[in-house]
Amino acid sequence: MDGASAFVRRDDDDGVVTLTLNHPDTLNRFSDGSQFLELAAHVRRANADPAVRVLLITGAGKAFCAGGDLRHMAEREGFSAGDVAQVQARYRETVHQLPAALAEADVPTIAAVNGAAYGVGCDLACFCDIRIAAESARFSVSFARLGIVAGDGGAWMLPRLVGRSKAMELAFTAESIDAREALRIGLVSDVAPDDRLGQRAAQLARKIARHPSAALRMHKRLLRDAEQHTLATHLDVVAAFQAIAHASEDHLRAVRDAVGALGKPR
């Protein structure tokens, strides 16, 4: 896809990759399956590169992502086209590739939510490891309002973030909440003034990216997989990962730097 029509813009900065949803004229809405595949491919490409330490996702213009294209839905076009079997297959082949790519990614991910995050946009943010929001950001699990369900895995992720009761409330009412409420319920971990969101996100990314990439990725796997593992299984994996980390040059360099710093006057 050429740069003029690409849904996603990629920028690289010393181990931090920023993916920007870049159709501001449509509020970065997903209009067809190819856009899910495009973003998923970017996520997988960044994850496959050991030089990438942090992946940051944001939106261009006034919105993070305002959901799906309502006009296409009304006309049964795009990923809404066809009979039940065709829609089901299309979701599996296109829409579901995005949450799968994010859920499988070992690289730490940040969503910088710069505006409306509705429907799939809200779920996209939820599948990132850390979410920070601009003061003007709003979140809505808006599917019920349109007579559909969260077709992109959001119903699996949301209760893990805000608890079952609050997730049910957000899904059943389909009402939007502002950034401060999102912070209160734990949907986001920080709120920044609109004109400082980019700076705040970049600062957070830099704090993470200063650490050895392999250790970051293993630590993320431990945190993520602990939700499914027993403690015994978790400790087995911990022992293996820690042995790998102790044998690494990154660890040796980091611990020698730390020892050297002990002798420096403060």
UniProtKB/TrEMBL annotation:
Q: Does the keyword Lyase apply?
A: yes
Q: What class of enzyme is it?
A: lyase
Pfam families, per this entry? ECH_1
Q: What is its EC number?
A: 4.2.1.17
Keywords for this entry?
Lyase
Query: Do the record's keywords include Lyase?
Result: yes
User: What's a BP term from Gene Ontology annotated to this protein?
Assistant: fatty acid beta-oxidation
> Entry's Gene3D superfamilies?
2-enoyl-CoA Hydratase, Chain A, domain 1 (3.90.226.10), Lyase 2-enoyl-coa Hydratase, Chain A, domain 2 (1.10.12.10)
MF terms per GO, please? enoyl-CoA hydratase activity
Task: Name the InterPro entries for this protein.
Answer: ClpP/crotonase-like_dom_sf (IPR029045), Enoyl-CoA_hydra/iso (IPR001753), Enoyl-CoA_hydra_C (IPR014748)
Q: Which family does it belong to?
A: Belongs to the enoyl-CoA hydratase/isomerase family.
Write down the PANTHER family for this protein, in alphabetical order: 1,2-EPOXYPHENYLACETYL-COA ISOMERASE, ENOYL-COA HYDRATASE-RELATED
Protein's UniProt name: Enoyl-CoA hydratase
What organism does this protein naturally occur in? Achromobacter pulmonis
